[in-house]
Automatic annotation (TrEMBL):
This is RNase H type-1 domain-containing protein. The lineage of its organism: Eukaryota, Viridiplantae, Streptophyta, Embryophyta, Tracheophyta. InterPro entries: RNaseH_domain. Keywords: Membrane, Transmembrane, Transmembrane helix. It comes from the Eukaryota.
């Protein structure tokens, strides 16, 4: 793996961990819907994909 690829992986991991922490805090403090805002499209896409997989009735792989 190149240094650039490793750096991108570390940055993506940091963004995902920050989103996870923010979501967990929001869930502890409110029952209202929450909005996740981030500047990493890849991270947001991964979160959306994971959310779809967890929804009841969702097709596997979507």
């Amino acid at each position: 793996m190149s240094i650039a690829a490793a750096t991108q992986c570390v940055a993506l991991e940091a963004e995902l961990l920050a989103c996870k922490e923010g979501i967990n805090l929001a869930l502890q403090w409110t029952l209202l819907p929450i909005i996740v805002v981030a500047d990493c499209l890849v991270a947001l896409s991964m979160i959306r994909m994971q959310r779809r997989r967890r929804q009841p009735g969702a097709e596997p792989g979507f």
